[in-house]
């Protein structure tokens, strides 16, 4: 399967996804008048315990990201009703987007898990984290080929702070 290979400094690709209240979300429209940094977090799905922990960690540290002028957004190919359940169960206040057509997944070059590899909830996207600056440039990329090894909120705080200081 051919994947997009984004490089640091590339413009973040546009994509359309659905918000939790089923409205279309276009990344470039969202970024147009927003001078914050954006942390775009791809996760496997509501059924994934490691994903639940990661999103909970981000939620608990939201104040830290706000201080760093960074808006957190999560995105998954999981079903909208599952994503809504996840938001409610973990009191997630940041946007959780539904990437039904895998548009964002493909545009950002996030790995997909195929059923043919090993038995694990069928076809889904793997984790990835991208930091996008106010000029829509990608300044940090972290993609995984499986559920583990993703950066913690603390790792991301240090990375964002370092990048902002050196820009």
Structure description:
This is Peroxiredoxin. It comes from Fictibacillus macauensis ZFHKF-1. Pfam families: AhpC-TSA. GO terms for molecular function: peroxidase activity. Keywords: Antioxidant, Disulfide bond, Oxidoreductase, Peroxidase, Redox-active center. This protein has one domain: Glutaredoxin (3-Layer(aba) Sandwich), CATH 3.40.30.10. The strands form three sheets. The chain has a five-stranded mixed β-sheet with strand order 5-4-3-8-9. Strand 8 and strand 9 form a beta hairpin. It is of the alpha/beta class. The longest helix is centred in the last third of the chain and has 14 residues. The protein has six helices and nine strands, in the order E-E-H-E-H-H-E-H-E-H-E-E-E-E-H.
Provide a short characterization of the protein structure.
By secondary structure, the chain is α/β, with parallel strands linked by helices. The protein has helices at about 25-30, 50-60, 60-65, 80-90, 105, 155-165; strands at about 15-20, 25, 35-40, 70-75, 95-100, 110-115, 125, 130, 140-145.
What is the topology, as strand order, of the major beta sheet? 5-4-3-8-9
| Domain module count | 1
CATH topology: Glutaredoxin
Task: Give the topology string: H per helix, E per strand.
Answer: EEHEHHEHEHEEEEH
Shape: globular
Mean pLDDT across all amino acids: 90
**Poorly predicted ranges:** none
Q: Major beta sheet, specifics?
A: 5 strands, mixed
CATH architecture: 3-Layer(aba) Sandwich
Protein name: Peroxiredoxin
Domain Thioredoxin: 6-165
Region (Disordered): 1-21
InterPro entries: AhpC/TSA, Peroxiredoxin_AhpC-typ, Thioredoxin-like_sf, Thioredoxin_domain, Tpx_Peroxidase_subfamily
């Amino acid at each position: 399967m051919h994947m997009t290979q984004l490089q640091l400094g590339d413009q973040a690709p546009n994509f359309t996804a659905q918000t939790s209240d089923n409205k279309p979300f276009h990344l470039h429209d969202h970024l147009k008048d927003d001078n914050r940094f954006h942390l775009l977090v791809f996760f496997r799905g509501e059924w994934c315990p490691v994903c639940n922990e990661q999103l909970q960690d981000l939620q608990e540290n939201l104040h830290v990201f706000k201080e760093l002028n960074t808006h957190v957004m999560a995105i998954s190919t999981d079903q909208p009703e599952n994503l809504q359940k996840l938001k409610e169960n973990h009191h997630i206040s940041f946007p959780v987007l539904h990437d039904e057509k895998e548009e964002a997944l493909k545009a950002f070059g996030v790995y997909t898990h195929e059923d043919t590899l090993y038995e694990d909830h069928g076809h889904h996207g793997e984790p990835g984290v991208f930091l996008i600056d106010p000029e829509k440039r990608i300044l940090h990329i972290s993609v995984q080929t499986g559920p583990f090894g993703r950066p913690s909120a603390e790792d991301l705080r240090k990375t964002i702070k370092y990048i902002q200081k050196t820009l």
